[in-house]
Amino acid sequence: LHARYVLNLLHETRKHLKQLPNISHVSTCYSEEITVCGDLHGQLDDLFLIFYKNGLPSPSKSYVFNGDFVDRGKQSLEILILLFTFLLIYPKEVHLNRGNHEDHMVNLRYGFTKEVMQKYKVHGKKILRMFQNVF
């Protein structure tokens, strides 16, 4: 995805998240399902498998993602792009909780910083700063 669109997505995501309370309250009833996921760690195939088995986020399919989206795997950036896009499209059905890997120092050590800089050589620093701001 072109850097301009990534930055736009990050800007809109940040704007949306700033409006939310610090703690998310998600309730469900017996007739509704909610899928809770955690620790994707840059494994895009795992996210695809979750969506294949449970369906894509939609007004009838809610998800809670419990952090650790990035680091270790090679496709953290793609995971965040997908999750942030679904969050903006379905703000009442997609909930994102920050994990310990959504932290600048952890990203330096476990690979997300390097991934962003390799994929976006020219605008990598700006994109990385914006990701940290969103986190």
UniProtKB/TrEMBL annotation:
Its EC number is 3.1.3.16. It is an enzyme of class 3 (hydrolase). It catalyses: O-phospho-L-threonyl-[protein] + H2O = L-threonyl-[protein] + phosphate. SMART domains: PP2Ac (SM00156). InterPro entries: Calcineurin-like_PHP (IPR004843), Metallo-depent_PP-like (IPR029052), PPP_phosphatase (IPR051134), Ser/Thr-sp_prot-phosphatase (IPR006186). One of its GO terms (biological process) is negative regulation of MAPK cascade. Residues 97-102 form the Serine/threonine specific protein phosphatases domain. GO terms for molecular function: Hsp90 protein binding; metal ion binding; protein serine/threonine phosphatase activity. SUPFAM superfamilies: Metallo-dependent phosphatases. Its cofactor is Mn(2+). Gene3D superfamilies: 3.60.21.10. Keywords: Hydrolase, Manganese, Metal-binding. It comes from the Eukaryota. Belongs to the PPP phosphatase family. PANTHER family: SERINE/THREONINE-PROTEIN PHOSPHATASE 5-RELATED, SERINE_THREONINE-PROTEIN PHOSPHATASE WITH EF-HANDS 2. This is Serine/threonine-protein phosphatase. It comes from Pitta sordida (Hooded pitta). The gene is Ppef2.
